[in-house]
Amino acid sequence: MKLYSVICMIMILCLWGQRASAFWGSDSTDVASGLDVAAGFDVNTITTVTGSALTLPERKGQEQHTVMTVAAPQGTVTVVLGPWWYWEKQNFAVVKSQELTVTGSLAQGKDGALYLFAQKIENRSSGETVTLRSESGKPFWSRGGSGNQNGNRPLDGSGSRSGSGGRGTGMRGGRR
Amino acid sequence: MGKTARLLIGIPFCFTLLVAWFAWSAFHAAPQLAAENLRGAGLSISAAIEQLAVADPSFSSLARYTTPDVAYFALIDRQGIVRFHTNQSLIGQPYHISTQAAFKEGVSEQRERLGTGERVYLLRTKVHTTRDEYLLILALHTYRADQVIRRAKTGVTVVSALTVALWGLTLLLFAFLRREERHRKEMSRREELARLGEMGAVMAHEIRNPLAGIKGFAQLVETASDLEQARRHADKIVTQSLRMEALVNDLLAFARDDQGMREMNDLSALVQDCAVLLRPEAATQNVAIEVTVPAQIKVQVVADRVVQLLLNLMKNAIQAMPDGGLLAVGLQQKSGYVHISVRDNGSGISQEHIDRIFEPFWTSKAQGTGIGLALCRKVAEEHGGRITVESTVGAGTEFVVSLPVKSGSQGN
Fold this sequence. Notes:
Strand order of the largest sheet of chain B: 2-1-5-4-3
Low-confidence stretches of chain A: 17-26, 145-154, 156-176
Mean pLDDT of chain A: 75
Oligomer: heterodimer
Number of domains of chain A: 1
Shape of chain B: rod-shaped
CATH class of the largest domain in chain B: Alpha Beta
Largest sheet of chain B: 5 strands, antiparallel
Structural class of chain A: alpha+beta
Largest interface: A-B, 46 and 44 residues
Distance between the termini of chain B: 23 Å
Number of strands of chain B: 12
Number of domains of chain B: 3
CATH architecture of the largest domain in chain B: 2-Layer Sandwich
């Protein structure tokens, strides 16, 4: 009887263990999307999205990154605007249903949703623009300039990701 | 319990193996299926891109080509320069891997992680236009194709949860059955102890009375004035001793097990012999014995055990008619069984007592061991048969013993 109980518990623990690893995730990886919301960017997928603001910018996750949603022809796009502290400094007012043009690196998360890592955002009615990243994708909040190296490269056929320096360091550098 | 336990563990175990096999095969096939879906989509899109490139050598029409599955695509010339890219700011820039090797390689595919953290399906293939040959790099979103993998994972999770629940229920059931078994054994042990106590009381009563008689008459023998008086007392001592001997014989008969010593016997003759033996005793109580049996019925039985059974039933019937009456003994064969009926028109048995009369050491008589009817049932069951009783208080009782004609035709 004890043996059966032990076998049963081991089976439960094995299943629980597999599930548990998915809950934690890595340092800056968003659990729902599986994307690197803190430092993710890829020049290959840069695109421009035009649409109206569905939700206003808000803080999300442990990294306190800023996100908002935009209703675009492609569907609802979650726009990732960088660290909250940096976004606050931009004084870029967004109201609901405001027409926006956002340029950035587009990705599809493992939840099936579209995410746009914003490079530049423009208020279409006022013409006001805020640039969050350089042309090569380097984030402006990263004072050391050690942003995602993959973003700096025009095209990397290998697709390998080597932007470890641009993850947490960029954000921390900007706060100092 | 052993067989039940084996079934309780065995069935879920087989079910678990079956389910695990199904889940594993589905889970194992899912990535291949997803890869095939992606390859199919990749090749279709690359064919469409090739057509557009052939139709429009300036590649400007490619800028308008888009599908929801494409993350990006690019055309690289033999010199390693980007000739088209979905991010148009990259057009004209050099490409960073060896294009010569990529051109030689032909079609290649792999899953890659982009700078955003997204894992895409990357297809490299050659595209031919009227002017030149280009390397197409096509990155596809994998979410839709990976649906099959997610479904397989969900399936495995659900199946695992169900299996764990099944095992949980099985273990609970197993524990419950074990507890029931323990409870049943404990009850059985208590009943045995109670019966042992009952038997002890009956034995003490049945032995103490003749023993007291023996003791008393022995004391009288000591003080007897003449030989004739001593002889009368000695006779009484012998009578009491015989009573004790009968008790011991009854006990031995009840404890005996005569399985496998059966022979073909004429049951009609056995019934008639018993009637002959008991006629004198019946006559003293004005009881007439009426025997209705066929000429011969051969049955495979242990003769002395069946005689014991018949004598017990017939003696009981005679004792139930202290003021005289009729004891009718019948025998008939029907559908592989012989039925012996012993009917009296005596006092009958009350409903309250009728449920207990076959219990060992239970008796309603002032002098009785309570073994007689228990022995009857035991003998009937030893022969694969059974004994039933019907009684009406004041009208009489009928016992029916049913025995299979051939040993082993039912039970044993």
